[in-house]
Amino acid sequence: MSAPESRRVLVTGLSTYWGGRLAQALEGFEHVEAIIGVDSREPTRELERTEFVKVSNQHSLIQRIVRAAEIDTVIDTRLTVNSVAAPARAAHENNVLGTMNILAACTGSDSPVRKVVFKSSTHYYGAEQDDPAFFTEEMRRPHAPRVLIERDIVEAEAAVGDFSRKNPDVCVTVLRCANVLGPDVDTGFTRMFALPVVPMVFGFDPRLQFVHEDDVVHALEHAAFHSAPGVYNVAADGVLSLSESISLLGKLPAPILPPFGTGVLVRPLRRLGFRIPDEMLNQLRFGRGVDNRLFKSTGFVYGYTSRESVIKHSEHLRLNPVMRGGEESYTYEREVEEFLRWSPHVRREREEAPVDREPLGF
Amino acid sequence: MPPDRTSLSHPPAPETLDPDSVGEEHETRDLPERRPAKRTRELLPAIEPERHLDDWGRSELVEGAFDRTLLEFFYRYWFRVEVEDIGNVPSEGGALLVSNHAGALPPDAAMIAKAIREEHPRPRKLHVTVEHFFKGYPGFSMLIPKIGCVAAHPANVQRLLFDERELVLVFPEGRKGTEKLYKDRYRLRRFGRGGFVEAAMLGEAKLVPVCLVGAEEAMPVFAQLEFMKRLTGLLYFPITPTFPWLGPLGMLAYLPAKFKLRFLEPIDTVELGGPEARHDKALVQTVAQEIRARIQENLHEMVARRRSVWLG
Question: Which of A175, A182, A216, A274 is the Cys-Cys partner for A269 at CB 3.0 to 4.6 Å?
Answer without folding.
Answer: A274
